[in-house]
Give the backbone structure.
Amino acid sequence: MSVLAAIAVLAILIFVHEAGHFIAARSQGIYVNRFSLGFGPVLWKYQGSQTEYAIRAFPLGGFVGFPDDDPDSDVPPNDPNLLRNRPILDRAIVISAGVIANLIFAYLVLALQLGIVGILESFQYQPGVIVKPVNEQSIAYQAGIREGDIILAINGQEVPADKTSTALLTKEIQNNPQQQIELKVKHQNEEKTLKLTPKEGTDGKGLIGIELGPNAKGVYRRPHNPVEIFSIAATRFQELFVGTLSGFGQLITNFQQTVGQVSGPVNIVKIGAKLADDNSANLLSFAAIISINLAIINILPLPALDGGQLAFLLIEGLRGKPLPNRIQEGVMQTGLVLLLGLGIFLIVKETTQLTSQLDWVQKLFQ
C-alpha cells in the first residue's frame, strides 16, 4: 500500500503541474484540446466541449495539448485564441504556470502537514543512533549492518540518549582508521556484536559507509492559530527551496561527486514508500519536496522542458520574431530523446539495484 501511496503522490504532482498550464490557458481564453495524465496508450478518456481528458498507460508525466500542434484541428490558423497567436507575455504565463502551481502546492502541503501533525517543539531521545541508507559495497554492509539498525555502543562505550549521540559516534569511527572497532547493534529487536575495521579516507579519517541519525521522536504541539501555520510553512518552504537550488548548483559545479545522488522514478517511489511505512504523514513532506524538485527541474532552460520553451520566448522577444519552426522542432525533439533516454537509463539502473534488495522487492509484489 505504501508503494501505491507514493505513486499516487507522484500522479497528483503531475496533475497539479499540468492543471497549472490548463487553468492559465483557459482563464485567458486560449484553446486547449487535450489534457492527459501519463503517456502511451489511452486507458480512459472523456471528450468535453473543447478538451479531451485522458489517462494513459505510463504515469511518468503528462501534457496539455493545444490545437496549434494538432494537424487535424479545424481551428483557423489565424484565430487569436490559438496559443501561438497570443502576445509573448500571455504565452509565458501559460508555460510557467505549471512550475508556479507546483510551488504553490508545495507550500500548501507544508501548511496542511503543520495543521494535521502539529508544530515540532522538541525531541525525545533514546539510547543509540539510527542507521540510515547503507552502501551495499561498504564495510558496514559487509559486516551485517542494515538500514534501520540502532547502534547502541562502540568499543564498549554506550551511545548516549541525547542530541550529541550522532556526532560522538561519527567522531569515534573517524578516529579509528585501519583499526578494528566493536559495535553493539540492535537489529529488529535482537542485539548483536559486530567487529569491523574502518578504511582510511582521503582526509585520513575512518569510514565505514553509513549515514547516521539520532534515535529520537519528535514532540509536537497544536498550532496557536492559522497565522502561525502559514508563517512556519513559509519558513520551511524557503528552506526546502533554497536547499534544492543548492543541490542543483552542486550537481553543476561538482558533477562527479554528486551525480550518483540523482534519482529516477523507481528510487523516488522507493523513498516515498519508505517514508509512508515510517509514518503516513511523511507523505506530505515527500509531496512538498518532490513538488519543489519538479518545479525547479521544469524551469531549467533545457529543450522539452518549460524552461526551454521560455528560452525560445526570450529569443523571440530579443529578435522581434520567433525562431524558424524547423529549428525549434529539431531542438525540442533532440531534447525529448535525451530526456527519455535519461529516464530509461535511471529506471533500468535503479531496477537492477533493487534486485539485490529482497525486502524491497517483496514489498513491490505484496
Notes: Residues 343-366 have pLDDT under 50 and may be disordered. The radius of gyration is 25 Å. The longest helix spans residues 88-117.
